[in-house]
Design a protein that fits this description.
Blueprint: E1 6-11, E2 14-18, E3 23-36, E4 39-53, E5 58-71, E6 76-88, E7 116-121, E8 126-128, H1 144-147, H2 149-157, E9 163-168, H3 175-195, E10 203-207, H4 220-226, E11 228-232, E12 236-241
Parallel strand pairs: 9-10
Antiparallel strand pairs: 1-3, 2-3, 3-4, 4-5, 5-6, 7-12, 8-11, 9-11
Length: 242
């Protein structure tokens, strides 16, 4: 057998696993057509090796290969080889990777600032007449609450607004009594506004007694006009967007 010449044609896929940037471990598994003496045979092939990439064109390989089951009808044998090879690839030098120009990112568009303008707002005062309260009483009549809807809606629409509640009386009775009565009536209206959701910090209440009549106290009609509660919203500013 040692005097016989063995020739083989192999077909085996190669699988490489990189170990470092220039070194890879590879293996091959396949088959071979073997010419052994006067006989031809087929054999399994297995190989493993290391591949060294010295530069772009030159590769070195250190490989161990095994051919199994070589049969010439007299003996069954196998062939083992260890080889060191050099492969040269013809071609130009390795081209450097193209440089991608990094363009600075365009800044996101900046929205134009929203301009806010201060606007002055005024409100014509509302007054509750003598029918709002029972005679000599600071208790609001049930129907009076509905009379407050307009000013409550306004205060809800403009949170910047505040309201002043001012109580007045006619000249019937003593001045001190009228002063106290006007204060109690102003407080009653202020409480009614709070009950409808207006914060107490936005409400001020005071009484002026008989000191600010709008009609003559000499007549019943005039005295009726003087018995009133005024609701005044002072001038205020709020922001609008243009």
């Amino acid at each position: 057998m040692n005097d016989e010449k063995v020739q083989a044609v192999t077909l085996a896929p190669k699988l490489s696993i990189p170990l470092t940037e220039g070194i890879a471990l590879y293996g091959k598994v396949g088959g071979a057509y073997v010419d052994y003496g006067s006989k031809d045979d087929y054999s399994y092939l297995g190989a493993a090796g290391l591949e060294f990439n010295t530069n772009h064109n030159v590769t070195m390989r250190l490989e161990y290969q095994n051919l199994t089951d070589i049969n010439n009808d007299i003996v069954r044998a196998r062939a083992e080889t260890a080889t060191l090879g050099i492969a040269y690839k013809f071609g130009g030098s390795e081209e450097p990777a193209p440089v991608v120009e990094q363009r600075p990112a365009e800044p996101a568009p900046v929205a134009a600032p929203v301009e806010k303008v201060a606007v002055t707002k005024t409100f014509t005062f509302q007054h509750l007449d003598s029918s709002t309260f029972a005679t000599a009483s600071a208790e609001l009549k049930p129907a009076t609450v509905q009379k407050l809807d307009k000013i409550v809606g306004y205060l809800n629409q403009y949170p910047q607004a505040k309201v002043e509640v001012v109580g007045h009386t006619d000249s019937t009775g003593s001045e001190a009594y009228n002063q106290k009565l006007s204060e109690r009536r102003a407080q009653a209206v202020a409480k009614a506004l709070e009950a409808q959701g207006i914060d107490a910090s936005r409400i001020s209440a005071k009484g002026l007694g008989e000191s600010s009549p709008i009609a003559s106290n000499a007549t019943a009609e005039g005295r009726e006009k003087n018995r009133r509660v005024e609701l005044v919203i002072p001038e205020f500013q709020y922001q609008v967007t243009e």
